[in-house]
Amino acid sequence: MLVISEIIRRFEQGYTQPFLCRDELGELYVVKGKSTTPTGLAKEFICAHLATAFELPFPEFDLAYVDEGLVRYNDEASSTLGHGELFATKYIEGLQEVTYQTLEASDGAIAASLFVFDWWIRNDDRNLSQKGGNPNLFYQPANKNFFVIDHNLAFDQSIDFNEFKANHLGRTSWEQKRNLFTRDEFERRAHLGLDKIDEIFAQLPDEWAITDDFLEEVRLLLTSIEEDAFWEGIL
After folding, report:
1. Which of 58, 127, 159, 170 has its CA 20 to 30 A from that of 146?
2. β partners of residue 65
3. pLDDT digits (tens, 9 = 90+) for 152-177
């Protein structure tokens, strides 16, 4: 677990109101806390593991401890970040929110994989069109790298597939690339995460008070990738 030694500033962008922080080793992290809600933090932590297993470019991440003394005289941090065990991703310099044009110019492999991944975790919060959107996908021009973030709204079982397909940023890439992928390949990736799901659940902090019922719902949803019904309309 990281130990945060300094709270630098709140990011202006982002509904979950993350903060730029420094840990005891001097490394910078983007830390989410109170505004994300305990359930949202659990979704972030679980999906960070799953995205990494799914071979998506997710930043380094960890739990981060923020002492109460760091926020005691910082009203903004006290009200939106809080203290205790929180969720952190490594800060990456020079990231830009991906644009429709940037995505169109890429080879589409990441966007296509994201289409399947987000349907697997029932995440409807990655949308993009020529008019804009909320991609939750970032690009680092200096190194030509993409980074996937933000899964606090995952595991939404009310999502309709047709609406998801119409709005997801990877819909066009998936249509163009799906013949290059196989169901077996995506199931292999999924199982890299599923095989460790109990270990992932066990790492969730007790103070987040995540219920067994919630975790069981997540488990059942994730195993749906093994069923034919999951793949209807995708392949």
Report:
1. 159
2. 3, 85
3. 999 999 999 999 999 999 999 999 99
| Domain extent for 24 | 2-90
Contact 6, 69 (CB under 8 A): no
Per-residue model confidence (pLDDT) at position 228: 95
Name the helix (H) or strand (E) containing 97: strand 96-97
C-alpha pair distances (Å), 31 with each of 100, 163, 167: 27, 31, 28
Can you tell me the distance from the alpha carbon of 129 to that of 133, in angstroms, rounded to the nearest whole number?
6
pLDDT at res. 130: 85
Final residue of a domain: which of 90, 117, 145?
90
Kind and range of the H or E run holding 221 = helix 212-222
Q: What is the rounded distance in angstroms from the CA atom of residue 52 to the CA atom of residue 177? A: 21
